[in-house]
Design goal:
Elements (H helix, E strand, L loop, with lengths): L1 E2 L5 E3 L7 E6 L5 E6 L3 E6 L4 E6 L7 E6 L6 E6 L2 E6 L8 E3 L6 E6 L5 E6 L4 E5 L4 E6 L7 E6 L6 E6 L3 E6 L4 E7 H4 L16 E6 L5 E6 L3 E6 L6 E7 L5 E7 L3 E6 L3 E6 L7 H9 L5 H12 E6 L4 E9 L2 E8 L4 E6 L2
Parallel strand pairs: 1-26
Antiparallel strand pairs: 2-29, 3-4, 4-5, 5-6, 7-8, 8-9, 9-10, 11-12, 12-13, 13-14, 15-16, 16-17, 17-18, 19-20, 20-21, 21-22, 23-24, 24-25, 25-26, 27-28, 28-29
Pfam family, one: WD40
Keywords: Repeat, WD repeat
Protein name: WD repeat-containing protein 53
Length: 348
């Protein structure tokens, strides 16, 4: 079911260039966005600009922002090679700065207990920062041979983390040792002839990762237009299926709860998914009951058809997606190549 954008709200008047990232607290009462030229904007739930921080002297960009779940007055921002910590009650300067990455940071994420922050960068490395001790805890290196674009802590497994990058690799780490637990090359996984030939024109770079709340699923956004779904319910993860719904690269995957998924891509389309509907497909039953998977072509197409529950045609390529829930209703923040952010209600 397609949706129009007419009733959607806009957060505008803050940024002068394309918005690269956006985050919110759990109910959307505080929204923070980042853009080129080191522009950081703080917004209220009614889409009003509360504060803007601009550092025109810095030849860089704010590529990722992350609000603390324990104290939503505090947030983290990746600016060039530095991760800065801010308190919204006093934005004159950062509270803390972590300069451990050698090249531009692409994403920062916090673990569940906010003991650690992970920052992945253009060198292909992931820096694990101890927030309690305010020091570099571990460096994950020598596995990505190109830019590391995304990183995601594993839910309910405090020492495990995933990273993905422009080498088409998904790496599963135990960062306490550090040790690689598993490695998946998306080109090898998707080496079979595609039923949608145009998808294979672009390599399956890993742009973004998201894990379901119960840690059962890991979703990977790929440049070839696929969304790779991994079963992460067991110790060793394995690819479960591939969703085919975007006609260009997928830039964002975001879980809402255990089975609801939102994806966005360079085709300016946002798609809504319910992975619980996989149980309704014949191919899922076949695999579950006798251990034999249905043919790859049929199985992925059937799961895609059953699980895709909605489509929203956006007006620009998607840079970042963030979901929050207010009074039982779900809302989606969309950062794109324009200088405004779209706020839309979604039904998942």
């Amino acid at each position: 079911m397609a949706h129009a954008e007419a009733a959607f709200s806009k957060l505008q008047g803050g940024h002068s260039d394309g918005v690269l990232c956006v985050d919110s607290n759990s109910d959307g009462s505080r929204i923070i966005s980042g853009a080129e030229g080191v522009e950081l904007c703080i917004w209220s739930s009614d889409c009003q600009l509360v504060h803007k921080l601009h550092s025109p002297d810095e030849d860089s960009a704010c590529t990722s922002v992350c609000i603390s779940k324990q104290n939503d007055n505090m947030f983290y921002a990746a600016i060039g090679t530095v991760v800065k910590v801010f308190d919204v009650r006093n934005m004159q300067s950062s509270v803390e700065s972590f300069q451990f990455n050698e090249e531009e940071v692409n994403q920062i994420v916090l673990d569940e207990k906010e003991h650690y922050l992970a920052a992945c960068d253009d060198t292909g490395e992931v820096k694990i920062i101890s927030l309690q001790e305010k020091r570099l805890y571990k460096t994950l290196r020598r596995k990505h041979t190109n830019i590391c674009a995304t990183v995601c802590f594993r839910s309910k497994k405090p020492w495990e983390i995933f990273s993905g990058g422009m080498d088409c690799n998904l790496i599963h780490w135990d960062f306490s040792r550090p040790k690689t637990l598993n490695q998946f090359n998306m080109q090898e996984l998707h080496d079979a002839p595609s039923e949608l030939g145009a998808y294979m024109v672009n390599p399956p770079f890993v742009h973004h990762l998201s894990m379901s709340s119960d840690s059962h699923f890991l979703a990977c956004a790929l440049e070839n237009g696929y969304i790779s779904i991994f079963d992460s319910s067991k110790k060793n993860i394995s690819e479960f299926c591939t969703l085919h719904a975007h006609t260009q690269g997928v830039s964002q995957v975001v879980f809402i709860g255990n089975t609801k998924l939102v994806t966005g891509g360079n085709d300016s389309v946002i798609r809504l998914w319910d992975l619980a509907k996989m149980h309704e497909t014949e191919s899922f039953e076949v695999q579950s009951t006798n251990g034999h998977a249905a043919p790859l072509h049929n199985r992925n197409s059937e799961i895609t058809s059953h699980c895709c529950t909605g489509e929203i045609q956006h007006n620009s390529k998607i840079n970042w997606l963030k979901c929050f829930t207010e009074n039982g209703s779900h809302f989606l923040l969309v950062a794109d190549q324009t200088n405004s952010i779209t706020l839309m209600p979604i039904h998942v």
